[in-house]
Amino acid sequence: MRKNSFEEYLKNLDEIIEKLESGNLSLDESIKEYEQAMKNIKSASKLLNEAEGKLFKVLEKNGEIDIEEI
Hints:
74% of the residues lie in helices and 0% in strands. By secondary structure, the protein is mostly helical.
């Protein structure tokens, strides 16, 4: 199974927001969309944390880490 990119998660979130804002969904459909949005947020957040960890490793390796600048 292919892992979505951060950008794909954001695009999907935008689509869900549009659906929810349209007012055309039933309560059950809205709840399902909301659940999917929360899963996407969790996955996107995980990708951001992983990227941040990689950035810190690169900066530490090069002796250039300054937390205040990041």
